[in-house]
Amino acid sequence: MSVLIFIDNAGDHIRKASQEVLSYGAKVAEQLGTTAEGIILGTVTYDLTTLGKYGVKKIHQVKDESLNQLDTQVYTKVIAQVAEATGAQVLIFSNNVDGKAIAPRLSARLKAGLVSGAVALPDTTEGFVVRKNVFSGKAFADIAVNTAIKIVSLSPNAYKIVTGDGTAEVVNFNATVETSKIKVTSVTKASGEILLTEAEIVVSAGRGLKGPENWGMVEELAKVLHAATACSRPVADAHWRPHNEHVGQTGYAIAPNLYIAIGISGAIQHLAGVNRSKVIVVINKDPEAPFFKAADYGIVGDAFEIIPKFTAAITKMKG
Amino acid sequence: MKILVCISKTPDTTAKIAFTDNNTKFDVNGVQWIINPYDEWYALVRAIELKEADASTVIHLITVGGPDADPIIRKALALGGDEAIRVNAESSDSYFIAMQIAAIVKQGAYDLVLAGKETIDYNGSSIGGMISELSDYPYVALATKFELAGTKATITREIEGGEEVCEAALPLTVSCQKGMAEARIPNMRGIMAARTKPLKVVEPITADTLTRVAGFVLPPAKAGVKLVPADNVEELVRLLHEEAKAI
Questions:
Q1: Contact B139 A97 (CB under 8 A)
Q2: Would you say B149 and B171 are in contact if contact means Cβ atoms under 8 Å apart?
Q3: Can you name the CATH fold of A201-318?
Q4: Where in chain A is the domain with CATH 3.40.50.1220?
Q5: Could you give the ipTM of this predicted complex?
Q6: Closest CA–CA distance from residue A211 to any residue of chain B (Å)
């Protein structure tokens, strides 16, 4: 019996989303009176024993270089072998790109009920019930899992990272690894340093900025806040900003601590992607902009005057 | 080539979200229903484009739902597709639904199964992956581009903080998101044609449900916006730092 936590293979570092699931999984194990163990597929260049600080006692590594490439069909079979060998009772993923690709497949293979996009720890007082996002952030559902093995995928930014002193024992797991039927021919990484979906603070701008040439001040504000930059759909569609910055129903759904929306009116499709942000600041010259209804703080005024002042005030505060 | 497109009926994006029966059921009163946008704009339209490029392509649509899903599947047929299958069952459990679709995939020996990346009601992102496993198809999730040359597909998919291009042979399951295709509006000819296209209703196979909705909860209402004068940005910074503790 154990809680088995899937760690994304990001090569040279551990993703924030993986730190979150390790912290979450350790707590779930504590709740169930069992141990938390990690699983990572492929090879990495950092010391996996250090991940013990998130509360895992053991990490099962399948050291096969072919697994450095994610293929859900191959991954599912390997994870199932590890889950079976370790008697995993609960498997935990992040509901990020990798988790969305793998967890459902594994759910079907193990016939283990899946709660995707969990936002809280399971309620284990009666059965196993997990709260998740539904209706694009407009509600939550409590999902009861009926099966012996359970899978939870945790929404990014929904659980606080907890660290302690431990070190983990890294165990090499010899699994049967099939040959992938998918061949990756090229990989492009976005240029920003902070992943939009993992960012604590996001500075986002819309058509109110009038043109791509005005984004310098948005980037400066983001820089002083150590924030990721984002944009609304019309901005991405007009190619003022790359598509991987688009937040909203058809773009990314994000849940940062702070979302600053500049010159975005706040259409319902946009809100669907950002309404899980903990604090929302809206800067818009139109006092009737619907976004103000969803905001915690707002300034009615000209973005071109406010942004530089905002940047200066934050710089001053941070001293 | 045979393509199966998964279609889900979802409440319109602007629908008011409320619950009945002691917060255990979604309140359908006054709700407008639409084709799940990811299924429509990306999965279905890309399938139609593939048929336009190769007229021998056959497109079947599948939905799992009651008779009230018929107008939605007809609307999908008005956009394109040759025939539709409705599995006559309702469930909120992804596994149950995936089992139904996988049974159709096996019967129909489809070369390509397309699904939206998620539905806008349950936001599960689960169906594509589950069908793939149950059909033992390779699966490419969160695809933004899909090109086909013979039986070889070239797909661009989202990865964490970027994208990658990969190649795979059919058969294949792909979950689709923005970038795959541009939204279309059904024209009168399509709407007329959809009336006579076959819509087969089949009874569900026996399948377990692995999860159940115990209840719904609405998020706490926002307290209301606190407006700061435009000439006092320092005050906003102070509030964000001291009150919201967000910076």
A1: no
A2: no
A3: Rossmann fold (3.40.50)
A4: 201-318
A5: 0.96
A6: 22
